[in-house]
Amino acid sequence: MWFLRGMLRIPWTAKKKKTNERVLNEANKRRSLVRTIRKRQATFLGHVMRRGKLEHLVTTGKFEGKRSRGRQREKIMDGLATWLGPGKVSDILAAVKDRDLWRDMIANAYKQGT
Hints:
Largest sheet: none
Number of strands: 0
Keywords: Initiation factor, Protein biosynthesis
Organism: Plakobranchus ocellatus
Structural class: mainly alpha
Protein name: Eukaryotic translation initiation factor 3 subunit f
GO molecular function: translation initiation factor activity
């Protein structure tokens, strides 16, 4: 963020008055790190699901054993289901099999910036 503040000539003393969101709006920029991470997760998930080996079992969460105590961790599939839009995990698993459909879903979600 410091480079945008320098380009817009915002002094460091105005840090409390100008939030990072306001600086991004002035520069007409958006945060893209989370979107890039989700896109890479989705492409990796497509690769793993088409192979159908041990990684497939781990990412879908279908392995035997006792669940640990406390709050359950968020699964990769649940995070991608919310990122890719309204739909169930089973719909996503079916879409992974068709490579062109999966690429289109990823591209549309990336363009929307969710």
